[in-house]
Amino acid sequence: MIEVRNLTKSFDGKTILHDVSAKFETGKTNLIIGQSGSGKTVLVKSIIGLIRPEVGEILYDGRDIMKMDSSQIKELRKEIGMLFQGSALFDSETVLGNVAFPLTMFTNMSAAEIHDRAQFCIERVNLKGADSKYPSEISGGMQKRVAIARAIALNPKYLFCDEPNSGLDPRTSIVIDELLSDITHEYNITTIINTHDMNSVLGIGENITFINKGYREWVGDMHQIYHTSNEALNEFVFANDLFQKVKQYVITHEHH
Ligand SMILES: Nc1ncnc2c1ncn2[C@@H]1O[C@H](COP(=O)(O)OP(=O)(O)OP(=O)(O)O)[C@@H](O)[C@H]1O
């Protein structure tokens, strides 16, 4: 579990995070949602140690990253997988080369072991047979799966995903969401997903943290969110007609 306690962060005298506390649970898909500019990225960057808040605690299964020096943070990062927006693959490397990269960089595994582990991860994301392809030769959804395979190569305890569905069509987005959710459960990973995608919120949101103007205003899951009395959250999630209808449908049918 990652627990954040009373985080406050300001830039140039302007407070961006106001006393934010949140829990991100092990083996669950933890979503962070909120409007553009609400402070989600500042929160995530704080959690991974790229930004240092003025006040607060950030506990990785009890270990406070705020109290770590840079070499300790570097050690901790070995337990963290990252999935960046746009996949961030190396264009000049094959699928296999991309997935093998962190294994080559951060382990003492032999070439044969690296090959086996990379192949295992490639198969886990259903890309068997694509290992010698280059990123430019595969679709955006497949690239995202390569990025997921790379992110899990080192068997991370923690996985951070920044807008994993950006640029993907709705159907591919669901495939990626389900893959992230399955992997989270299967390997008992503390997964944190920064997302704007309401399909993800309602589809895989096991633990949702809503940030509004730098305050953590709501926490709950994809079922509870239909019943929220938080106006800002309601407007954010159910802004469009379709989601409004889904909400009415769910609420009506729950009472029967
Ligand atoms: N390094 C920085 N220096 C000064 N201000 C910053 C810095 N980083 C972020 N901010 C400010 O913090 C606020 C919150 O930004 P943040 O990027 O966390 O929003 P967000 O919720 O992630 O938005 P989006 O959904 O658009 O990515 C913004 O007003 C931004 O200008």
Automatic annotation (TrEMBL):
GO molecular function: ATP binding; ATP hydrolysis activity
InterPro entries xref list: AAA+_ATPase, ABC_transporter-like_ATP-bd, ABC_transporter-like_CS, P-loop_NTPase
Domain ABC transporter, chain residue ranges per copy: 2-238
UniProt entry tagged with the keyword Nucleotide-binding: yes
Database matches in Pfam families: ABC_tran
Record bears the keyword Transport: yes
Keyword line: ATP-binding, Nucleotide-binding, Transport
PANTHER family for this protein: INTERMEMBRANE PHOSPHOLIPID TRANSPORT SYSTEM ATP-BINDING PROTEIN MLAF (PTHR43023:SF6), PROTEIN TRIGALACTOSYLDIACYLGLYCEROL 3, CHLOROPLASTIC (PTHR43023)
Protein name (Swiss-Prot/TrEMBL): ATP-binding cassette domain-containing protein
Native species: Duncaniella freteri
